[in-house]
Design brief:
The complex is a heterodimer. Chain A is mainly alpha-helical. Chain A is built from 20 helices and two strands. In chain A, strands 1-2 form a two-stranded antiparallel sheet. The chains are: A mainly alpha, B mainly alpha.
Chain lengths: 501, 533
């Protein structure tokens, strides 16, 4: 009997290893009192190192751990988006009450744990690594959502996310079991072969596809599996909301794309119409739901549902152009949302309105350094020209029309039109006279607001909040005017996925 | 040249952010004046003999998506560009003479608006056109919403502006989808290109043309606005700050009409012919509805607003006459209308400052001690009602001539619009300038500041009245090309109207020479009709 020692490609595993080491070190800082304040810095260093190692691997496609993982440009691009978001979240978490309550070390270790899950998920090529990664991603988030322990809403948010998330995971796992039963393999490539060689329209496979799609729809907050999103987004500490809104969505979409295009590509004609309908429902539900929201975080939650619908369009067409558009949109979406969340964090701390839209009223005159990023972010999300949002929509619509899903492109157009009403409402609050009530009636009784007194009246000037906001907003405009670098980034990602033509 | 023309306003706008507050307006005016200078240079250097694009810029912008940054000037957009720069200079100067809140932002938005509008006129790539077309909304959203006036019995400025944005973006977003679909269908699996010239070479199948036509038409008709799609107009007009409204009404509405000539006619000729009468009905409805509403409104802004609806109806009718005359007249009339509506709104602003109201019933007697103002206003009024001798008369004549050629029934209805315009224009003049002067309203001559803004605009009107051929001789070839695309697809026999060649003008003496007294000779019934059939 021959025994071959497994070949371990340390170079390609290095990003994962770096994250794991960083995670352990961050956790240990909680134990040693003098090191406690270093956790955010350590986390940033870890993220930077990981990003560096990932960029080092750019251009190669390596199968890892006997084919359970595959580090390719697609995985790297999604991981970079997740890491960038995590870095923003770390900055936004400075002086965040939640981080103080659970302990800075633990808080950052959990954040890194979630990032680790995302990096793995973007590479997953096997049902087992897929599921393990998605749980690695989710479990730290359940805790982080509830991290602001003195606030009932935060606890509620964590619990809700735990229950709904578990339901999603269970559905996913059930679907995986069917697919394994139908194809006889856990590897994505093996599943594709199994389906191709088996009988067509095998009930096991179809049920499996349906259940995994539902499970992933839960994770990406695609309607009608979105109900948790607004509540969880509103309740969670805002830096965590920002992280969830962008990074979780990117990672979940990554595996959505890889799983459906690599493992289930043979059945594409079966799931394409179904996903198209989900996308359309998402666009309608998200945009209509966001209309009357006064809480900015809830509004962004609903907007995220609508945006998930747009992004799903990139998968629906099952083409390389679609994947490119999806990656491009995710990257643009990251910048747009991060700019908005950075401003919301700042206003949450310096006013007593929390994340209510009143918190940004008159921001244009009071704090232009915050008003501009939020304005650009809103215009970008609304898809107006000279922002990355416009190019992203253009990219998606081009892919959709090319893939004969013009009706979904029209849905995106109509959804965008509805979305203007709520995005521009925020812009109007910042720059224009308030609607309805007289201008002078602004500072209401303190008791009327759900939040306590301002945490930090100077938050609007803190460099760690203003700089990320300005940086993200600058990126939104930059890639709106000179999109070619980001287009190439997305094209690399799309080209590296194997298994579809 | 086109590049610097396009970006000069924005560069001035951004630099203006660091200029001291009280100079911000003057800096912005300097920027618009510089742009105006560039536009004049462009006009002088324009080769009126060539039909194709001149001064082109063509750079691969997003190769991955097939989008090019390509600009160019031809007879279609040359004078609209000139109009844009003239009106922006006047509007910015008018605003600069007055105290503005947050002047840095105001003038930045003003100049961004100019760049976006020039971009829409200059763009020769379909997607670039859509991009600039949408971008125009952003600065005007801020200008209307943040510097507009709230109404006590109506929506706030922010709400009125939101309504406008949602209305116009319905069309614009559908247009984005349609533009992409056009390019993809035309590419037929090959390399996607959005170049308008290339797309015009490979017309789409009739089935796709049909829906794509309406997606584009929706965007353009809302922008004008045309009847039934004008719902945003009354609120937005009442909310807008007047100097901004002057450029908005003078230029932005024309982008829609221009879009028909630049994009719809050459790219979707079959659908254009098929839906010619539907659009003509909309155009006539706009003329009638706009005129009737302009009779009855007492708010001066709305008189101007509804008269614009009627005038744009006229322009649309000219374009959809699908003859060279009609389209020639439409281009001329676009410039004319811009040149009359902007001074009209400036005068409205001056009158409103004096009387403290914008209600016609509460105004009157302003001419008493202000003969210069009254004279200027009278010239503008007469131009508005297309008095023979004005360039507007020539424009309307061409439009009607084109329409008579192709759709005689529509032409008869359209003629009534000419008569009605006399009523609302004179009513506006009489009610404000003559009549009994109500108490508390002061009749005062305009100062030199307003004069600086107003007199050059009126001189432009007079200049064009003396020499409309300035425009006609330069637009002729390009317009003919644009219209010629639809001639091939016309059902039922050979096209009735050929692209007109030089020297066959319907006006007896409009053959290229200066001809200042042509109205004295009764325009002979189009003499070339016999020759073309």
């Amino acid at each position: 009997m021959n025994f071959h020692a497994p070949h371990i490609d340390y170079a390609a595993l290095s990003p994962v290893l770096a994250l794991t080491v960083g995670l352990c070190v961050a956790l240990l800082t909680a134990v040693f009192k003098p090191l406690r304040r270093t956790a955010p810095a350590l986390t940033l260093v870890t993220l930077a190192t990981t990003a560096g190692l990932l960029i080092w691997q750019w251009g190669d496609a390596t199968e890892l751990v006997s084919g359970a993982l595959r580090l390719d440009d697609f995985a790297i691009s999604i991981s970079l988006i997740a890491i960038l978001t995590a870095a923003f979240a770390v900055l936004l978490s400075i002086r965040e009450p939640a981080a103080g309550q659970v302990g800075s070390g633990e808080y950052h270790a959990l954040l890194l744990g979630s990032v680790l899950g995302m990096v793995l998920l973007a590479q997953a090529q096997n049902l087992v690594s897929f599921f393990v990664a998605i749980e690695t991603l989710s479990i730290p988030l359940y805790i982080l959502c509830a991290a602001d322990m003195r606030r009932e809403r935060s606890l509620e948010s964590g619990l809700k996310y735990l229950i709904v998330g578990s339901l999603g995971s269970a559905t996913l796992l059930y679907g995986m079991a069917f697919l394994y039963g139908g194809s006889g393999s856990t590897g994505f490539a093996g599943i594709a072969e199994g389906i191709a060689s088996g009988p067509s329209n095998d009930a096991l496979i179809l049920v499996g596809i349906g259940l995994t799609a539902v499970g992933l729809a839960f994770k990406t907050s695609v309607a009608p599996f979105h109900q948790w999103t607004p509540d969880v987004y509103e309740g969670a500490p805002t830096p965590i909301t920002a992280f969830m809104a962008v990074a979780t969505k990117a990672a979940a979409f990554a595996v959505f794309v890889r799983f459906f295009l690599v493992a289930l590509n043979v059945e594409a004609s079966e799931w394409q119409p179904a996903l198209a309908v989900l996308a359309a429902i998402s666009i309608v539900v998200g945009n209509v739901g966001a209309l009357r929201q006064d809480s900015l975080k809830r509004m962004l939650g609903f907007s995220g549902i609508a945006q998930a619908g747009y992004i799903l369009g990139g998968l629906v067409v099952a083409s390389e152009a679609g994947v490119n558009a999806l990656v491009f949109y995710l990257a643009g979406y990251a910048f747009m949302n991060l700019a908005a969340f950075a401003v919301i964090v700042a206003r949450e701390r310096e006013t007593s309105y929390g994340d209510d839209i009143r918190a940004v009223q008159g921001l244009g005159a009071e704090r232009p350094q915050l008003a501009w990023p939020l304005t650009i972010s809103m215009l970008g999300l609304a898809g107006l020209p000279a922002t990355v949002g416009f190019i992203g929509k253009l990219y998606l619509i081009e892919a959709l029309v090319e893939g004969d899903y013009t009706w979904l492109a029209v849905f995106i157009a109509v959804g965008t039109m509805i979305s203007l009403a709520y995005y521009l409402r925020v812009v109007a609050a910042m720059w224009m006279r308030p609607e309805g009530e007289a201008a002078g009636a602004a500072p209401a009784i303190a008791g009327a607001s759900p939040e306590a007194d301002p945490v930090d009246p100077e938050a609007g000037r803190r460099i760690y909040l203003v700089a990320p906001a300005l940086l993200a907003a600058a990126a939104v405009v930059f890639f709106g005017v000179i999109p070619q670098p980001l287009v190439e980034f997305a094209e690399h990602a799309g080209a590296s996925l194997v298994g579809f033509h | 040249m086109t590049n610097s023309l396009l970006w000069t306003p924005l560069v001035f706008g951004l630099l203006g952010l660091v200029v001291p507050r009280r100079l911000a307006g003057w800096w912005a005016t300097l920027g618009t004046a510089a742009t105006l200078g560039l536009a004049i240079a462009l006009l002088v250097g324009f080769d009126s003999g060539a039909a194709g694009l001149q001064d082109t810029v063509d750079v691969n912008w997003i190769p991955g998506l097939g989008v090019d940054y390509s600009l160019g000037v031809d007879g279609l957009n040359l004078f609209l560009i000139a109009l844009t720069t003239v009106l922006w200079t006047a509007g910015t100067a008018f605003a600069a003479f007055r105290e503005q809140e947050r002047p840095h932002l105001f003038f930045l938005m003003m100049l961004l608006g100019e760049t976006a509008t020039l971009g829409a006129f200059l763009a020769q790539d379909l997607l670039l056109f859509v991009l600039f077309f949408d971008l125009m909304l952003v600065p005007f959203y801020f200008l209307f919403g943040a510097w507009g006036s709230d109404r006590e019995d109506g929506p706030t400025a922010a709400a009125a502006t939101l309504k406008m944005i949602v209305y116009t973006l319905i069309g614009s977003l559908l247009m984005l989808v349609a533009a992409i679909a056009t390019a993809i269908i035309a590419a037929d699996g090959g390399q996607i290109s959005f170049s308008i010239a290339e797309l015009a070479q490979q017309p789409l199948g009739e089935g796709s043309q049909r829906w794509i036509f309406w997606f584009f038409a929706a965007a353009f008709l809302v922008k004008m606005p045309a009847f039934l799609l004008h719902g945003w107009m009354p609120d937005a007009y009442r909310a807008a700050p007047l100097p901004v409204l002057a450029v908005f009404s003078g230029v932005l509405a024309k982008v829609g009409a221009y879009g028909f000539l630049r994009v719809v006619l050459p790219l979707f000729p079959d659908a254009t012919v098929e839906f010619q009468e539907v659009v003509l009905v909309i155009a006539l409805a706009s003329i009638l509805y706009g005129s009737v509403m302009a009779f009855t409104q007492t708010n001066v802004r709305l008189v101007a607003g509804y008269s614009s609806v009627a005038q744009l109806g006229f322009i649309t009718a000219g374009i959809f006459a699908l003859s060279a005359d009609g389209a020639d007249g439409a281009v001329l009339q676009m410039v004319n209308h811009g040149l009359v509506v902007a001074p009209l709104l400036v005068i409205v602003a001056i009158l409103a400052e004096r009387s403290g109201t914008e209600d016609l019933t509460k105004m009157g007697g302003m001419a008493m001690r202000a003969p210069v103002l009254a004279a200027l206003f009278l010239i503008v009024t007469l131009a508005t009602l297309a008095m023979p001798g004005s360039a507007n008369f020539v424009g309307e004549f061409y439009i009607l001539n084109g329409l008579f050629d192709s759709k005689i029934v529509f032409a008869f209805v359209a003629i009534s619009g000419v008569a009605m315009s006399a009523y609302y224009a004179l009513r506006l003049y009489q009610r404000t300038m003559h009549n009994r002067r109500p108490d508390g309203i002061e009749s005062r001559e305009i100062g030199w500041r307003d004069g600086i803004v107003l007199v050059p605009l009126v001189l432009c009107i007079l200049g064009l009245a003396l020499y409309p051929q300035l425009i006609l001789s330069r637009t002729d070839k390009s317009v003919a090309r644009s219209v010629a695309a639809t001639a091939g697809g016309r059902l039922g026999g050979p096209p009735k109207t050929q692209a007109r060649t030089k020297g066959e003008s319907p006006l007896p003496c409009a053959s290229g020479d200066a001809c200042s007294v042509f109205w004295e000779a009764p325009p002979a019934a189009p003499s070339r009709r016999g020759s073309s059939q």
